[in-house]
Amino acid sequence: MSKPAEKPEIVELPADAPALGPASQRRAAQQRVREARDRLTSTSGTRPAFDRELLRQYAQTRISASYIVMLLVVATGLMLSVWLHAVAAGAWTLGVLCIHAAIVRNCTNFLAEQPSMAATRRWRTRFVLLDLLYGVCWMAILIHPALAEVSGTLMMFLMLLVIAVSSMLAANLPVAAVAVTAPVTVAITLSLALSGTFDNYLLAGFAVAAEGYFVLLAHQLHSTTLATLEARAEKDALIGELEQAKAISDEARYRAEAANVAKSRFLAQMSHELRTPLNAILGFSEVMKSEIFGSHAVPVYKEYSADIHNSGVHLLNLINEILDLSRIEAGRYELNEEAVALVHVIADCHHLLKLRASSRGITIHEVFEQSMPRLWADERAIRQVVLNLLSNAIKFTPQGGEIWLKAGWTASGGQYLSVKDTGSGIPENEIPIVLASFGQGSNSIKSAEQGAGLGLPIAKNLIEMHGGTFTLKSKVRIGTEVIVTFPPERVMSALAPLSDEAPPLQPDHAAAPAQEKRRLLRKPIMNAGTGL
């Protein structure tokens, strides 16, 4: 009898790290390839551009400190002439100055030359050899037999001075720093070690430690300079990317603005061509629907005429909405501002749409605050806003639902309008969609009464032109509320009565002498007789 198969062991694989976007992966790959190529083509393990910049800083440092080096060499020559023959000390001083002049001349030529990779390698080798020759000259004078009687402390001081100055000057080129200081350190160390005294042994060890310290210090300065160059290169690269992104965004914005202007011009030019045939269609269809010239032989034609007229009216309204939206977006919609009673406008719109709501069994409630002052606004725009909001509320409220129209004061002293219904509601993620031009939510698509998706965007833009706010709140299966507020600056408060009395219609000649006498009494004494 065969054994039942064992249940296979299920091993949970580790979750993969979230993949980067294509742009990030491409940028990272390009960075790795660029770094690998720079390391392969560079002589120091850094980018070729960094090698050139480090050599440039090295050359500038040597040129700027040339007088200090000359002063050090001349002072050393004068000091050594106490123990050496004057001719030998002068010859050494002249030789070191010649080498120093050669270094300065090569640094000047390097700065004047056009940068190239081959030239950078050649100059790097030349600078290292010149610094090595400079260090050998110092080594030659320090191991001179005539200086055997000089104290080790003085020689140690001279060595520290030389390697300190040389390592600081050649810090941007670590190999040159080692080449210029190592011969001096070797000469002093051997000279002190061969003397056979314990104090000189200690000084020799101190000389080796000082050499290591200054080499590490030069390397640290080189690393700091290299890090600064990398940070500057990254900053320049980031600035370049930002400028490129800005150029791309500016071009895209220019194209979008051009497309928007072209759309606005097209709609403005086509408004007449679209409305003229529609007016003819509406006029003739209304004549046929009303049977002004006699009844139709076939009664169905009357129904067809009514359908044609209703379709034309719907198309004309759609064209008007598109043209209004295009004018608003193009900034050519002008407000015809006047004193407007917000409550009266809402009541008129309610009266216009009351029959449509009643046919659907929808109850509209009015909650208005009394004695509200007028608004300084465009009555046509406010009426269009209220009609759009109330039409949407009736459209998406089921039969037997309720709608509340509210108007009152805001906390800041402005006025507000609220339209709240008990419809199906709008999902929160679809609110930005319905507020966009031609945007429709899922409930609107499923509804039998589909619109163009322009009512809410037009209302929002008209309110923003008045300096107000447009807020849409909605919950699925509970309802939707739209709150429109107008700023306090648009509320026309009643003017207070004037406190000053009105001037008389005719001047009172009897009171004139008394007023003149009072004026003369108030006149300053110092102005008497001056005519002032």
Explain what the structure shows.
This protein is of the alpha+beta class and 532 residues long. It is built from 15 helices and seven strands. The strands form two sheets. Strands 2-4-5-7-6 form a five-stranded mixed β-sheet. The protein has a two-stranded antiparallel sheet with strand order 1-3. A hairpin with a 3-residue loop joins strand 6 and strand 7 (479-486). Helix 6 (152-169) runs antiparallel to helix 7. The longest helix is centred in the middle third of the chain and has 93 residues, at 198-290. The radius of gyration is 47 Å and the shape is rod-shaped. The N and C termini lie far apart (137 Å). Mean pLDDT is 80; it is low at 1-20 and 523-532.
